[in-house]
Amino acid sequence: MKQRIRPYQLVIGLGVVLALYGIASGVLPLITDWFDDSVRQREVFIDIPGSWKLVFYTVIPVLFVYGGYTFAMRVKNWERGMPDRRALTPQSLPRRLKDYRAGVYMQTLLRDPSAGVMHSLIYFSFLVLFAVTVVSQIQEQVPEGWKFLHGQTYQAYSFVGDAAGVVFVVGVGWALVRRYVVRPYRIRIKSKPEHATILGVFFLLGITGFVVEGLRIAFIGRPDYEKWSFIGYPLSWLFRNGDHLHGWYQVLWATHVMLFFTFLAILPITMIRHMFTSPLNMYLRDRERPKGAMKALPNLMETELETFGASTVEEFTWKQLLDTDACTMCGRCTSVCPAHATGKPLDPREIVLKSGEVMAMTGTPRVSPPLGVVPEITVTADSLFERITPEELWACTS
């Protein structure tokens, strides 16, 4: 019988495909030597040594393979769970797509405007900036007759890129202020070093992107068509007569690229992976029961089952294990929990995170927990009671 391809193998395959695309992106221009001679356009890798480009197109594929494998091991951990019917049918497709859109558009998160708007500024501007980067790479790969990023199209491209960059920096700045200045209780108690790392990398990515753009425009002589880069062009005035402009441009370009490498490296092992897992979780959500309803227990007088509920990772369904990785640690569940509000030891967010810790620390191979934990916390057995106490569970008023 033909063996079915498992989900984690598909994720590894996706990483390999992206890596091959990265290699092809570096090799193809060397073979074709296609060049856009339009006046108003941007040359990719202008004034960047060939050895640096070699490093770029070597590291990127390696990081794609690393990211695919690391994320696949998380998926393999989900596969430890019991079956859960989530098959796609023609009847369920419209609902699935609607739920997916709700997740991507952050409809639930926007109920809290301070959190929802801030996340939207970061998420959607990041997607635009990612698209801007991909478009510049596509421009580099296509023949002369197909090149499109010149003239007014390039000017519009520059304007959109700068606008997205401003929104991104504002969103990340808002996140930094909210987490480390305003410090709402439900965020303050779960702030970890990885949050500072993530926000720091994001903020520096946005700032260095603008500085590199300003240096590039100054380096090419500040042509008028670059005025559509409404942030980069004014910045270029600061560097117009600067000494060692060539060297500063290369150093800042390398710094910006290293920050991007850092982002790719931490993506699958920190909480920012929820940019993938949360929409996936919404897409696969269960609508057979009312929202929030618990599954009914079997008739205890008639069933032959000896245990009920879950005490080990394998007794959860694969979808419930996915839920632990999709958790955004926002604390909204805890904030509306009546048991927690009255001072009982139950904290719903902690239950989810602790379940994820047991899953992560008992998998083969082990993966990073949903949120960083102190080194003193250990898990010695595949038992949820390694991290969750009976007092927490019995405090539930449901």
Structurally, the number of domains stands at 2
N-to-C span? 46 Å
Number of strands: 0
Largest sheet: none
Radius of gyration: 25 Å
The fraction of residues assigned to DSSP E strands is under 5%
CA-based shape: elongated
Helix-strand string: HHHHHHHHHHHHHHH
Which residue ranges are poorly predicted, with pLDDT under 50 across at least 5 consecutive positions? none
Helix content: 55-70%
The total of helices stands at 15
By helix and strand content, what is the structural category?
A: mainly alpha
The overall pLDDT, averaged over residues, is 89
Task: Based on the model shown, name its key terms.
398 residues; mainly alpha; 0% strand; elongated
Describe the overall structure.
There is one protein chain. The protein has 398 residues and is mainly alpha-helical. The chain contains 15 helices and no strands. The radius of gyration is 25 Å and the shape is elongated.
In short:
The mean pLDDT is 89. The chain has helices at residues 7-32, 50-78, 93-104, 113-141, 151-182, 185-188, 193-219, 232-239, 245-266, 274-283, 318-326, 332-335, 338-341, 348-361, 390-394.
